[in-house]
Specification:
This protein is an all-alpha fold. It has helices spanning 2-26, 29-35, 43-67, 76-94, 101-124. It has one domain (2-124). Helix 3 packs across helix 4 (76-94). The longest helix is centred in the N-terminal third of the chain and has 25 residues, at 2-26.
Length: 138
């Protein structure tokens, strides 16, 4: 049961961030609305490419990790991406970057994402949870 709940939670997470990434790919200004990023001039292309890549790769690897037997390690990709983003934010805070409620919310989401992905990878890769599947880690 826990197996299906975790897989469902990861898939919902992946769907949400795939939508964020696709929306930003087609309308980079949406990142301005969502994240308070200034989207103008040549920066528009960089924001479109880099932020969309971040979200789409994270979402795709999370979905592959829970849907494709033997690919649970793909859950470590979004964990690494969001963990690195969180570390960058913490570094910025420690160096005096301005912080508002949006930054705090993003840090909470990043921390929860790391926990969800690492926790799902850990639980789903245990022999008891993956019994009868090719997802076990050797």
């Amino acid at each position: 049961m826990v197996n299906w709940v975790l897989r469902g939670a990861v898939l919902l997470w992946a769907l949400f961030f795939a939508i964020v990434g696709a929306r930003g790919l087609f309308d980079p200004a949406s990142y301005g609305e969502t994240f308070g990023v200034l989207v103008e001039g040549p920066a528009t292309n960089t924001i479109r490419a880099d932020l969309s890549a971040f979200f789409l790769v994270a979402a795709g690897s999370a979905a592959v990790g829970v849907l494709v037997p033997g690919w649970l390690r793909a859950l470590l990709v979004p964990a690494a991406l969001y963990g690195t983003a969180l570390a960058g934010r913490l570094f910025g805070v420690a160096n005096g970057d301005p912080v508002n409620s949006g930054i705090v919310q993003a840090m909470i989401i990043e921390a929860l994402t790391v926990l969800l992905m690492l926790g799902s990878w850990w639980v789903l890769s245990r022999p008891a949870a993956a019994e009868g599947s090719a997802d076990t880690v050797h």
